[in-house]
Design a protein that fits this description.
Number of helices: 8
Oligomer: single chain
Helix content: under 10%
Distance between the termini: 42 Å
Shape: globular
Number of strands: 138
Radius of gyration: 41 Å
Amino acid sequence: MSHLWQHPYVNVFKHFNLSSWKKSTKEGEVASSMDKQLKGTVYKITGSIPAGNYIQLPKTSSQSLGLSGRYFYLLFKPIPSKYFVVHIDLVTPDNLVVRLSFSNLFKEFKATSTWLQFPFLCNTDRGCAFGYASAGNKEKAGPAPISSRWTVLCLDFHYILSMYLNRKFSYMKSVKLCANMLVRNIFTSDFLYEPGLTVEEVKKAGGISNGMSPMPREMAFPLMKTDNWSDHYDLIRFPAELSSNPTQPMPYPPCKGNPDENPRHVVPRLVDVSRCTTEKVSLIHSQTSLPKLPGKKITVTKELPSVNVHDLSISRDDNGEVHIYANPSDQVVVHRPDHGPGKVQVIYRDRSVHILTEIGAKVAVHRGACRSQKSATKRIVEDFSTKKECKTLLPDPILQLKRIIGYGGASHKYCLWSSDGKVVVYPCHAVVVAMNVNSGHQRFFIGHTDKVSCVSLTINDALLATGQTGSMSVVRVWNFRTGECLAMCKTHVHSLHALCFSLSGNVLCGVGKDGHSKNMIVLWNTSKVSKTREITVISKAHTDVDIQCMKIAPFDETRLVSCGRDNVRLWRVKDGCLRSGPVHLAEYHNMEFTDVCFEAGYNARKDPADRLVYACSRTGYIVEIDYQKLSIRHVRRLLPNAGKSKQEKQSFNSGGGISINGMKINESFCVTGSDDGYLRLWPLDFSRVFLEAVHEGPVTAVDISADGTKVLAGTSSGNLGVLDVCSRDYTTIMRSHTKKITSLSVDPYRKHIVTVAEDHTIRVWDSDSLQQLYDFSAPKECPCVVCYHPLGQIFSCGFEGGTVKVFNVSTTSMLAEHRQHWGKVIGLAYSPNGDYMYSVGSLGSIALYDCSDNSYELIRLLGNTVARGEKFGPDAVAVSPRGEYIAFIGPTEYTISVASGRSLDEVMRIDITHMNVVDNSRTEVDSALKVVYTPESLNQLLVTTASNKLLKFNAKTGRLLAEVEHIHRTPCTSLDTTADGCYLATAGDRVVKIWDYNMNLDINFQVFIGHSEAINQVQFMPDGQSFLSAGEALYLWDFLADKQPTPYLPEGRNYQERDWFHSKDNTDIVTNSPVRRVFDSFTDLPRQTPPKPAKYDSPVRIDDLSSIHRASDTDEVNSEGSVKEAVIVGPRIPPQKAPSSDEDEAVVIISKSFQGESPHVRQVKSSNISSESNTQKQKSVHVEKPSVHKHFIQREKSHSLAQRRYTAPPNQAGLKLKSVIGYNGNGRGNMVWQPDSGLFIYTSGCVVIVEDLNTSSQQFLQGHVEEISTIALQSDCQVLASVSGTFEQSACQLCVWDLPQLVCKRSLTPPHCEVVSLAYSRDDRFLLSVGDYRDCSVVVWSTYDYTVLTQSTAAKPIHEVRWDPYTANEFASVGAGGNLLFWLLDETSPNVSLNVHEARVPSDLLRSHVTASPFVTDFTSLEYAGGSVLYVATSSGRVSAWDTRSNTCFIHWEADFSDIDFLVCRHGRLLTASSGRNLRLWSVQDIEGLKSHGESLHNGGLTMEDEMSLDGAVASIAFDDILEMGIVGTSSGTLWYINWSERTSIRLVSGHSKQVNGVGMSVACPNHFVTCADDGSLRVWSVADREQVLQFQVTDQKCSCLTVSPESRDRPGRSGNQAGRPQMPYVAGGYTDGTVRMFDIDKVEMVLKLHPHAVSVTAISFSDHGRMILSGGSDGLIAVSSPTTGLTVRVITDHKGAHITNFDVTASQEQEFGVSAPVLWLACSIDRRVSVWSADWSKDFCELVDWLTFPAPAYAPEGSVKLKSGQDLQNTLPPSLAKFSTDEPDIIVYIGYGMQRQVSFYSMAQRKVVRTAALTHWGTCLDICPTGSLMALGSKERLVKLMDYYEGSFQDFTGMNDSMQVVKFSPDGRLLFTAAHSEIFVWEVLV
């Protein structure tokens, strides 16, 4: 009541009698004067110092104005060329005084907790010279202009305090007006006034009902009747219509002048901010109505604070900003190769374009001016009608990583057990491996770019944290079970070396180095990483103290302990700071502590004061530390056993004590690993050694399994072993090289692999188990190349000193040793029959040896024959398949020599510098690096060069056949081909590429990552099923190329015997038997000797190769024999042979500009090629359903809309749709929002909703039958297009809506199954629709008459299309398989046609995050930006930028970890929205310079400014022109308002994402209703504005039913109620786990949880007064539970076996139809049985009074299924439902499956059905209006039936998109709620 006097407004100057100055103060030059324009008194405040010249209200600061008006109106005029200041003091409800100041003296916005400073930007009056002179000045802060005008300044105090300080406004305390200004008056009000309008004008516009009010007379400026108010005065509102940035100055309105000139004055428009900013209406409308400037877009210049991004694994500058760079020298090839007729073949060489077309090809060449170059750029567009489907290398992926032999890399300190003790986790260079110790199966965590230095695993195996060393110390957090990377961050600058999870897994600790090389400790919060995919920093600390290890206390996540050189420290997080205290070490302070752990591991029951901390040192000391006293309690020194020989551990000698590297403690014992190679188990008093195991090197890592029965040990020699404590058995599970592997070779018969490495070891492995069989050590010289004998169990090895040694593996003896080379041996090879061996030295020598009698005598040695250099190893010599010739690089690096394999006589020499067969102007000189022979079927010689080319020569004639450019970005290090010659493998730049050898595909290769260092050698296994790559470790891959299927053998077919060793014609031998791996070996040749047993635990080790003497001559290798083997011989498939004569040859040049792009092949010599490969028919490719989230897939439904329905005319309809709750998150792009007009449209099911954000009112566009997939809006916001797909009898439907009239203009039938994308052209002349994966069609419509202009079909599914806003008639599309198409709508001819060009895509852009991912990367979205830039996103989370003038990609980067479904670009800012729930804002301002000039990015480069996470995958998106605010729809059915400047996200529209199962209301609370759904949520909604009030969420369960407690004086379980206070009812929900949960909505908490059922709860209801809860399960049991005690007091089993469908309870307590009971309730089950019960719960009385059984036929409703006992009736039959009549007390209304479709009315008094009402469809839900004679029914055919209770007449209502699940009347009978799947409709009952 005290504030009523302030309504409707307060004239402040008049109320405080300013002229008397009794209640106000004036200081300085303040005078009153008469203003001629206003014709009244004004106050003039002048003076050079604003603080000394002012008017202040009230008089003193201790007084208060007490003005509570929300809006503040200041009528003033700035004095020209002067500054002014205004201070306003506001008070919040908690009595905090906040000063609000604005002035043209301020340059920028500043904010503190008690002061907000806003800069005031002034502008000029119309027509003035100053206005035109300053029109181009963007920064207008400064003195007021000369021609300033009288201004009305309106401030919204509610908005300002809530937006900037998150506080509420209470009242205005004081105001101070400082020089220099003219002031007329100050007003406060709760109303928003519009100047320049009269009451009559407002009434005509309907503004009074919408909150629009004209300016009161006291506030109005004088105005002539014929004048426009905005021509004489200015209106400024804050928040301004042009401002959405919290740091945005208060803008003065732009001036108005000539309409054809700039600047222009904008007429002020009303902005309704009458509500709190937390409401969506005011928040959206007040910030989204941007004024329209004719012919010119509004550009708002803003600056955002820099956001440091720490979780990206990309380069940064000194300021911490993220940069991504592209190589400006990369050439881009636009077109793909194609050999079909009428195709364009393009070769780029030296930036010149050569276009070759065949006769009859339809090629359109379009020329456009190039902005950055003088020459024009040619754009070639292929005719799409002749385009074939893009062919790729299949299967994809063709390789799958199976095993890795390796351990360590950056560190050997980490190896961990999983919680079950079956899996060990350890790092292997850049890969983290999880290996099952029983099966040997490995899983891989791939994503690090440098060697992994530390790992940590939570105790429940939920999360795995890994960190890498080097300058990019990135920490990744993985889901250990799925292998998915959840989060990634970069906090440390370099040298990350320790990670540790807390016991709960909610905290992660990491230790690394900062920029000053100090130790930096970081604690992250990982508690929500599984849900939000974010980890936040809890605390950081920098210290000079050395830290070797750090652990988090198991009893307190805020306490830690660390150890290092000379220190052990205890840490604690307090008040967000990480602080530490040293442990007093006394005389032990000079030790180097290596590991630390807490007593008893994870036992958290002890008090922290009783805890012990153990620390171990390099000198063998174990220190027990008192955690509470920070002092040493006990010190022990561990000494080696006296009986051990000193010489035995001489290499690990570290002094008197044991140098301990790591320790682990559990409740029973302690485990230590030391430098002496021992793993020891000690009792906790360290009195003796329980067990010990000796290793080959220092034990660096130990871990104990959770059950304490197994101990894991890792050594610096690359070994991992498991000690079984119970059986005392030790098993080595992994052995590995400790340095880079330089060469490998394969034994083709015994599945053995031999490797040599820089660690001076030669190791032999079993390829099946990857266990090490033999270990040869050469401490004095390093082996560098190795080669297995093709037949015997023999291998030869070359060393750095030039020695070649030959070993017999079976006898572990050395057969021969030669020292023929002076330099390093760089090549070794055997002839195919094993008779000859060849060795090559780095100084140019080559040697030939005779191996026929195992003497290995030297036959010939040639010097200066091979090119000198070590770069040609380890495969410097190649042998032809028959052994007739050998090839090598020499005598210079520019020539290839081919020599006889028996004599080394030169046969042929190829000069690779004179192979120019096409371009005679080519002058570059190239050198060879590698040479390899192909299989005999190809008869080719492959050569790789230093310029990254692959040359294919005819092995017989030396003629160049083909040239492939840029096979890798760096020189190729190794290559190999499969035995059948179909595939080629190359290695380079740390990746492996598998190629289609013939290169006849559009994409001829696949790329595989995983190596962190250079790959030295690759090799296919002889069986063709595996592939090896060797570098820092040995990688074994499964080769998944298609194999020839086993042929069907008819009965009676005989086996053929073949002598494999004495066959005269070796070419007829079928090396690949149809029976796959008959002999379980690499080839189908039988074993000559039985295999040796694998010696896993104790492999044979030869410490010194020099100690091995030559074996005697009797040691022969059994390489010959006459054993015959029975083999099933199938049909032989002839391999493709290369042409053998010069006449049949054709030289092919294959060029490629981008790494990963398909090489372009063009035929140089015009000759006929009659190979079978050119005549084979292409197989039709079946298009599967896309797996990307972007592609719209219609939600599965079982029933279509009923064809037979009875609808009433609109004026006679009994229902009217009032509101729709929910948004269809399954759609794509099904929401539009125009910030200029405030138009907001979205879809729900098959309804288009037009919502007014100002009034929250909804209007509906109904006409679709099926789910709407997408919508599109014309640029004038007058026409909307929406489209729905096909389903059963319904065809695809395209509706064109007139938005002003809300009517459908056209209803079209597109030739699509489903439409995934819809777009209007920039001039709205065309409408583009794209079909889904089933038809892949593109249709262009004319918007003049909506006829089809042209249409085409894409080869692959298209996900999105966009018109080019800067070029007429052009658009682009992206789709499956990385398909990017540029389209041109050609209108030059009478028949409009589409020309299409497919862009060339770099292969590294198509890589997935996961190695060997089974899915092909798709292009999912695109966005045009200015300057001929097109952004394209992929399903792997990458964004690429393309030049639309040349259609080439010039940069791409990793922007997310999942599908990026939407891109929005505005003014140098790019927004990415992904299916991983992320919104990321990028700054891309300098990308134009990179594209045009090939320069690096300037001013911070490519920077991620901000990031938000939503509640689901992004389904639609719309933002304003400055990318500050927008609306985003998610797959969870939510529409969010996003404001980047304020970094806020507000829920606008909510809805269920899954099927709604129940709706409930209460008489006590008619303004709210409750729903439950399969998403496990129970939500409370407001009826008036459809806002979600509350949500109770139960994870991993479905809420199948709900009930609301009735109104009663006796409210169970609630006490302390205040008299007269309205209370919300209780709500109870039944869940699929058999539980019943009761919620108190007033207290917002769950008050009771019951578990009365063992199966799903299917029905639930409160009793009449809420004393009991009735619940029924799917097993037919009914439980009666007390909500007061939580006990189940009664279980009813009468319906057992058939699930309960519903309950109903009578409201009346006295019935007069022969039943002596106060209350009746009934239960209905699926088997058409209804039980009626009499109950008095206060007396614990309940008895059965009636039992109803309704008949039904013995077949299903469709007549196709015969019902049998035990059949699932729930899924077969319509449900049975029963309810008490509200008009007739003794009537039960029943619907269910029966002889007829009808409603039955059963009389309990007469015990029979008294009448029926016919139905047209089986009912699925039923409700009776409590106040009228109406019934509502729903059907599976999507109909809502409103039926007259007595007459049986009905009306059908449509609009739902799925079967009806729920119908529910409100308690007053005025509203009807219906639910179909996730859609909730609210109907107004009109009868």
